[in-house]
Structures are given as C-alpha cells and as structure tokens.
Amino acid sequence: MTRLLLVAATLPLIAACATAQPGSPYPGGNSADRYVCSGTMLAQFKGRPASAELANEIIRSSGSKTLQWVAKGMMVTMDYRDDRVRVWLDGQNRVERANCG
C-alpha cells in the first residue's frame, strides 16, 4: 500500500519534467514555440551604429530570442545556440557583421 502511494505521489513530478513550458524554445516543446535565428536578413545592418533600437530590429528580423553584442577584440565562447544572434562591432561601435549561433 505504501509503495502504491509513493508511486502515485511521484507521477505528477515525472509528468512535469517531461513537458515544456508554453513558449519554451527548448526541445520537447511545440516547434511553433521555438525561437530559431535566420541569418537571411542580417547583412542589411552592416555599418549601422549599435543601439537598443538596432538590437530590437535585429531580433525581429532574425527571429532570434537573444542578441549578443561582440565588441572589437572581445572573446566569445564557441557554443552554438540556434536561438541567438551575435552582432560583431568594429572599433567605432558599428556593426561589422551579424550571424546566428
């Protein structure tokens, strides 16, 4: 009897681990809920000065969830994230290039 109660008590916890939260960009969620960066429209931002408004434009154009500014000479990790856009800046804080990952 105690074993049955223990199993019944843990079932909601197991079910909660298996499902993603609504809007979650991670595997297990609905594919429509994912943020996936698309680099097809990113070349248009080359040469523009970095700003919050530009960051919002880049996020909207790319479909990404996050944006990472990369200043001249800054080191970055080599991890790939399909929900991120990286914007590389030159010495004058202007967009040198932008790419997904």
From TrEMBL:
One Pfam family it belongs to: Inhibitor_I78
Parts forming coiled coils: none
Domain of life: Bacteria
Signal sequence, start to end: 1-20
Stored InterPro entries: Prot_inh_I78 (IPR021719), Prot_inh_pot1_sf (IPR036354)
Keywords, ordered alphabetically: Protease inhibitor, Serine protease inhibitor, Signal
Protein's recorded name: Peptidase inhibitor I78 family protein
Annotated organism of origin: Sphingomonas swuensis
